[in-house]
Design a protein that fits this description.
This protein is an alpha/beta fold and 280 residues long. The protein has one domain: P-loop containing nucleotide triphosphate hydrolases (Rossmann fold, 3-Layer(aba) Sandwich). The protein has eleven helices and ten strands. The protein has helices spanning 50-57, 83-89, 101-104, 111-122, 128-141, 147-150, 160-172, 190-207, 218-224, 246-251, 256-263; strands spanning 12-21, 24-34, 39-43, 65-73, 76-77, 94-97, 178-182, 210-215, 231-236, 239-245. The chain has a six-stranded mixed sheet with strand order 6-7-8-3-9-10, with helices on both faces. A four-stranded antiparallel sheet has the order 2-1-4-5, covered by helices on one side. It is a peripheral membrane protein. Pfam families: ABC_tran, oligo_HPY. Residues 12-262 form the ABC transporter domain. GO terms for molecular function: ATP binding; ATP hydrolysis activity.
């Protein structure tokens, strides 16, 4: 496994992170770094420890979780911060978007009010006019059609792709330095998936946004991690089994599990008479 991925000044540095729920280890001694403007793809099957890692970054694991190691963000150890200071990071300097927008959006609250509320939590001093302007700016930035006419609509009145754009607008309205994207395209069809991935890449380039992109799908990660500095880390059963520059990992996978993941992705050249590789 490549452990030479080092930055002089990483924005996020995870060192020897382990997470256990009772006697059951979920994550075992992983170390990762992300620089400003870089995307790190974190790949693995369901239950491999990806989402537990992302929730540990925001200190959103249940009290029963036992967490050791350190998570340093811009030099601060997040695991050692008082809860009040941690709350200031959540949503402001570190934002997160989820797999299923309908579970993250309030179904009985107008979307303009939801995004405004996300802004007011961290900026109570802003006037209503300024908040409205910022909300509209964020909706324009994620290319939501006709946002001025849609501020009073409810989540169910939007398509799946539009709801994901709403979540991205809500996440980025504070100009966070790190975006955690946990399976952000899994619930979308392939065409909309490509649109959301392009949007995330455009926003990343515009704002020098660092991103932790979590997925079970290596093909999607390959699209998200398309810059020379981007890396991919592969998790299996709570452990990191491979960690390398994205291009190297896709062209020359070293670990048998990574090879199986790649072999299980259908391509235009795949022989349809042959079964895809099965993960075990």
């Amino acid at each position: 496994m490549d452990t030479t991925h080092l930055h002089e000044n990483p924005l996020l540095e995870i060192s020897n992170l382990s997470i256990a729920f009772g006697a059951h280890p979920a994550v075992q001694d992983i170390s990762l770094r992300i620089a400003p403007g870089e995307t790190l793809g974190l790949v693995g099957e369901s239950g491999s420890g990806k989402s537990a890692t992302s929730l540990a970054l925001l200190r959103l694991l249940p009290p029963t979780a036992h967490v050791t190691g350190s998570i340093r963000f811009a030099g601060e150890d997040l695991l050692a911060l008082p809860e009040a200071q941690m709350r200031r990071h959540r949503g402001r300097s570190i934002a997160m978007i989820f797999q299923e927008p309908m579970t993250a959006l309030n179904p009985v609250m107008r979307i303009g009010n939801q995004i405004a509320e996300a802004l007011q939590v961290h900026h109570p001093e802003l006037s209503r006019k300024t908040i409205r302007t910022r909300v509209l700016d964020s909706l324009h930035e994620v290319a939501l059609p006709n946002p001025e006419q849609r501020l009073n609509d409810y989540p169910h009145q939007f398509s799946g792709g539009q709801r994901q754009r709403l979540l991205i607008a809500m996440a980025l309205i504070h100009r966070p330095r790190l975006l955690i994207a946990d399976e952000p395209t899994t619930a979308l069809d392939v065409t909309v998936q490509a649109q959301i991935l392009k949007l995330l890449k455009d926003l990343r380039n515009t704002h020098n946004l660092a991103m932790l992109f979590i997925s079970h799908d290596l093909a999607v990660v390959f699209q998200a991690c398309d810059q020379p500095a981007d890396h991919v880390a592969v998790m299996q059963h709570g452990r990191l089994v491979e960690h390398a520059p994205a291009r190297d990992l896709f062209l020359h996978p070293q670990h048998p599990y990574t090879r199986k993941l790649l072999a299980s992705v259908p391509t235009m050249q795949t022989n349809r008479d042959q079964p895809l590789a099965v993960l075990s």
